[in-house]
Design a protein that fits this description.
Number of helices: 8
Mean pLDDT: 78
Radius of gyration: 20 Å
Structural class: alpha+beta
Order of helices and strands: HHHHEHEEEHHEH
Shape: elongated
Helix content: 40-55%
Low-confidence stretches: 148-163, 167-177
Strand content: 5-15%
Length: about 190
């Protein structure tokens, strides 16, 4: 973040569109924060966002990304730095079907299993392997919930129930060091059908 106003940290040199700016800051649950700041969106955030909380920094970065009106958005662990109320707001106003970028491609990398039902496709990354999950996101979410419930009760899932869960297609990527290259993202995007 640059040592400038909140607004300039969202715009990053792009032209100011008041209506779009207000839609973006609302979608990112920043309206109340801006109202509480003495100088509103002209408040200086400080170098590296020193005057902002961790959650505000995350939401400001999200607002910056949304303001650009890109065709594809890749979010990495977006929801981990915000509380449950703000998370719900972001899910409803950004990520979900009725959100501000609902017509755009959204890729969410997350541990938040409760957002799986909102997905069109699920790609699971485990121990350096990419697994395309053949179930619908809702089925997958139900299976995860069932498995966690069974584990918490000390129950054993019957072999027949496991047989009903389709085997995922596993790809063994050929990684060089370091383990993450552009080819990894290309594979991930290709597996998503784009």
């Amino acid at each position: 973040m640059i040592n400038d106003s909140f607004r300039e940290n969202v715009l990053m040199g792009n032209e100011y569109d008041e209506k779009w700016f207000n839609q973006v800051t609302h979608a990112c649950a920043l309206t109340q924060d801006l109202e509480q700041m003495e100088n509103g969106d002209q408040t200086k955030v400080g170098f590296g966002g020193v005057n902002l909380s961790g959650g505000q920094k995350t939401r400001l970065a999200l607002a910056r990304a949304l303001y650009l009106k890109a065709d594809v958005y890749i979010f990495d662990d977006l929801l981990s730095a915000v509380d449950a109320h703000v998370e719900r707001h972001i899910i409803e106003n950004v990520l979900a079907g009725g959100g501000i970028i609902s017509s755009k491609t959204r890729i969410l990398v997350t541990h938040a299993e409760h957002v799986i039902p909102l997905s069109d496709k699920v790609v699971k990354l485990t121990d350096g392997q990419v697994q395309v999950v053949q179930q619908t996101p809702v089925q997958l979410s139900e299976n995860i919930t069932s498995e966690k419930s069974a584990q918490s009760e000390g129950a054993v899932v019957e072999a027949q129930e496991l047989a009903d869960i389709p085997e995922p297609f596993v790809i063994h990527p050929d990684y060089d060091d370091p383990p993450l290259h552009w080819a990894s993202f290309q594979k991930y995007i290709a597996l998503s059908g784009y």
